[in-house]
């Protein structure tokens, strides 16, 4: 018998499966986009309003960037924190859902926008679109409380780029985690079936 959401009788198992499927579908949408990396620039601050975001987006011209990641209309402006919580970056990338009241980050090693797992954002909703990061200024305050940016940050930029390149294991970690969750799910379903028999 094939296990589907409809033939699971236990309500808790059905909820767990639905959350797991949602999680996997959202995680699989956070694809690597190497074309985004060439658009990344370190900036001293990010937009604080929709008007500032629109102006920065118009200036960045993400719709004109030649890329092969997504449809051109889905390659959009972002201003987010970096992985190391020491800079803000402007980048053109596909918008993704950010989950778990976390801040959005651009990961140069993974060449993607994703949630920053070590941030806790009390003003962020559980789920929001990464291109709406300007609405959650708390995330930028994390950076500015950790680092004072100087006018000449070229040395800082090269050190940040070098250290972010060393993080190629992010995708592999998610794949292994997903496989582990599937195995645990199968074991739980089999245990429930054997109890009913």
What can you see in these coordinates?
- The protein folds into 2 domains: 1-30 and 168-197; 33-166, no CATH class.
- Helix content is 41%, strand content 17%.
- The protein has helices at residues 11-28, 34-37, 50-60, 138-146, 154-164, 170-196; strands at residues 41-43, 75-82, 88-94, 97-99, 103-107, 112-116, 127-129.
- The strands form 2 sheets. The protein has a 5-stranded mixed beta sheet with strand order 1-3-2-5-6. Strands 4-7 form a two-stranded antiparallel ribbon.
- The chain is elongated and about 65 Å long.
- Mean pLDDT is 79; it is low at 25-29 and 148-168.
Topology:
Elements: H1 11-28, H2 34-37, E1 41-43, H3 50-60, E2 75-82, E3 88-94, E4 97-99, E5 103-107, E6 112-116, E7 127-129, H4 138-146, H5 154-164, H6 170-196
Helix pairs in contact: 1-6
Query: In DSSP terms, counting alpha (H) and pi (I) runs of 4 or more, how many helices?
Result: 6
Which segments are poorly predicted (pLDDT under 50) over 5 or more consecutive residues?
A: 25-29, 148-168
Trace the largest sheet across and list its strands: 1-3-2-5-6
Report the span from N to C terminus: 14 Å
% residues in beta strands: 15-25%
Tell me about the biggest sheet?
Answer: 5 strands, mixed
- H/E element sequence: HHEHEEEEEEHHH
* Gyration radius from CA atoms, angstroms: 20 Å
Structural class: alpha+beta
The shape, in one word, is elongated
Number of strands: 7
Mean pLDDT: 79
Helix content: 40-55%
Taken together, the total number of domains comes to 2
